[in-house]
Amino acid sequence: MASITEVSPHKLRRVFVWELPVRVYHWLNALAIVALCVTGYLIGDPPAFMSAAEASDRYFFGWIRFIHFAAAYIFFFNFLFRLYWGFVGNKYADWKNFIPTSQRFFKEIWQVLKIDILLQKEREHMSVGHNALAGIIYFFTFLAFLVQCITGFGLYASMSDWWFASLFSWVSVVFGNDEFALRNWHHATMWFFIVFALIHVYLVFYHDYVEGRGEISSMGGGWKFIEEEAFEKFEKEEMAAEQAEKKS
Amino acid sequence: MISTPTRRPTYYEELRQKGYSRRDFMKFCSMIGAYLGLEASGVAQVANALQKTSRVPVIWLHFQECTCCSESFIRSSHPIVADIILDKISLDYTETLMAASGHQAEAAMQKTMKDSYGEYILCVEGSVPTAEDGVYCCIGGKSAMQILEETAAGAKAVICWGSCACNGCVQAAKPNPTHATPIHKLVKGKPIIKVPGCPPIGEVMAGVIVHIITFGRLPELDRIGRPKAFYSKRVHDTCYRRPFYDAGLFVETFDDANAQKGYCLYKVGCKGPMTYNACGVTKWNNGTSYPIQSGHGCFGCSEENFWDNGPIYRQMANFPGFGIEADADKIGMVAAGATAVGIAAHAIATNFRKKKLIENLIEEGKEAEGEL
């Protein structure tokens, strides 16, 4: 592991990490999740209005629900797009960032846990795109996306005439025809998103603060600023790996 | 068309004998046709069928239930419903309303089962306890399970009346000590029609039976076996208070001004948004009212597990595994609060543990700033 503290001052090289589609996905997703959580929470527990207005003049709750359903469609298709991009995007967008395929993946998870979460004083860990721990947590997040889409569209299926929504009419059957339970699970899963967002935003600030590589702005322009040593170390590792292969 | 080997009087003949006029009969046919959602020509079909068809033998069983289904049925809006269906159809055997008792009654049931094998309709009110070999419900020395097996064998179709027979209702609520089991889990290989509700609406029950008589087959069912004509819409979607829901105007407590104004009961626990039933359209007691109209939320009596999805007067259900009063929001807020505390602690710890690293970066940045 190369260390940020080893050499000072650092020479930084600009690396194009997040391609435009990944950034667009990210912000659409963020917007949709905020809209879905806020409107979803309101649907579960609407605010109290004492109003003298005629019901026919108001459509407050109707709009809340409309925003929720519209955002749900955006969220779902955006998510599908991201899955697709995991196969055609650059190496930082690749699906292998999220699903462990090697021993190294697990080793890196442990490293990140030690250094960034338990704050052990070891040589700083270097990753350019997602680190392995983030990667696997995004994998679980995708599972939560899936749960939320399935339960959500399952609840929505009976309200829509569109064939797409009715593709989900099996969901309530899987939940034992119990829409109460379905609704409850959909509501509970919302809290995963809220807790995730809290941790996610915090860790972005944490990395930016501790590493100084432009973690926050990377989702704007796509650039991260990586130390020269990281490149040197990567080359050394590649050479070692090649030699090991030749020997065997 | 259903036919029986021995010629019995048709429904129409029996009604005329009872003193109903042709006009009464046609009114009944129109009414039931409307409930069934038939077009105008369908009414003639109903009338035709009732004039030509001999009455269908019916065995109506009562197991673990409260008889509210029968009560609802005999109170359906048109007197002919009770006459035509209870008097004329179900008297073959039904514990609540038959004249016979004891061995006579059992003999009547055996006779119907033998004479009309493969022809009779089996109506079941109530669930069947399967724990302890079914000792929790025995009639005439037989367990409910045995009776159901015997009668179902020769039935043309099985109608499950009410939530007990469709999903177990209250006696199947946790912990379900008698293992109360709905009928569709016990009877296999027979057409089964579910008419859930606690009780189901009388007109709905009548409509189902008239449909079978008229068309000689079951009405169109949804994927869980309920007749689509009555269970394809949520109470919420046919509710006259729906505009208040869309406007965001809710009753907060049962004694507030909003309750007086007749606002939506969603926040005081109305389960209409998850409940499939015809209450909003057909209503109860000759179309007089239904729970929401009388100021009380729907509590979802025709839905699976409605007893376990309480509390009745709160919109959010308790979350399984976290004890009473722990809904998803309470659990979520605790989780989010714990996360926030963890984040704050981590942020503070970072400044201590990574002090040198952060200082180096700041130093480096300052130097660079000075050079420019």
Count of distinct strands of chain B: 9
**Rough outline of chain B:** elongated
Strand arrangement within the widest β-sheet of chain B reads 2-1-3-7-9
Instruction: Output the CATH homologous superfamily of the largest domain in chain B.
Output: NADH:ubiquinone oxidoreductase-like, 20kDa subunit
> Which structural class should the secondary elements of chain A be placed in?
mainly alpha
Q: What helical percentage do the residues of chain A reach?
A: 55-70%
* Name of the CATH architecture of the domain at 20-46 and 58-203 in chain A: Up-down Bundle
Largest interface: A-B, 53 and 55 residues
Residues in helix, % of chain B? 40-55%
Whole-angstrom Rg of chain A:
22 Å
Secondary structure tally: strands of chain A: 2
Q: Describe the sheet with the most strands of chain A.
A: 2 strands, antiparallel
Strand order of the largest sheet of chain A: 1-2
Q: What is the H-and-E element order of chain A?
A: EHHHHHHHHEH
Cα separation of the termini of chain A: 25 Å
Residue share in β-strands of chain A: under 5%
Q: Keywords, please?
A:
heterodimer; A: 248 residues; mainly alpha; two-stranded antiparallel ribbon; 2 strands; B: 372 residues; alpha/beta; Rossmann fold; Cytochrome-c3 Hydrogenase, Chain A, domain 2; 8% strand
Walkthrough of the structure:
The complex is a heterodimer of chains A (248) and B (372). Chain A is mainly α and 248 residues long. Chain A has a domain at 20-46 and 58-203: Up-down Bundle (Fumarate Reductase Cytochrome B subunit), CATH 1.20.950.20. In chain A, 65% of the residues lie in helices and 4% in strands. Chain A is built from 9 helices and 2 strands. Chain A has a two-stranded antiparallel ribbon with strand order 1-2. Chain A starts with 11 loop residues before the first strand and ends with a helix. Chain B has 372 residues and is α/β, with parallel strands linked by helices. Chain B has 3 domains: 11-231, Rossmann fold, CATH 3.40.50; 252-294, Cytochrome-c3 hydrogenase, C-terminal domain (Cytochrome-c3 Hydrogenase, Chain A, domain 2, Irregular), CATH 4.10.480; 328-371. A 5-stranded parallel sheet of chain B has the order 2-1-3-7-9, with helices on both faces. In chain B, strands 4-8 form a two-stranded antiparallel ribbon. In chain B, α2 packs across α9, α3 crosses α9 and α4 (68-74) crosses α9 (202-215). The longest helix of chain B has 26 residues, at 328-353. Classes of the chains: A mainly alpha (248), B alpha/beta (372). Chains A and B meet through α2 and α7 of A and α11, α14 and α15 of B.
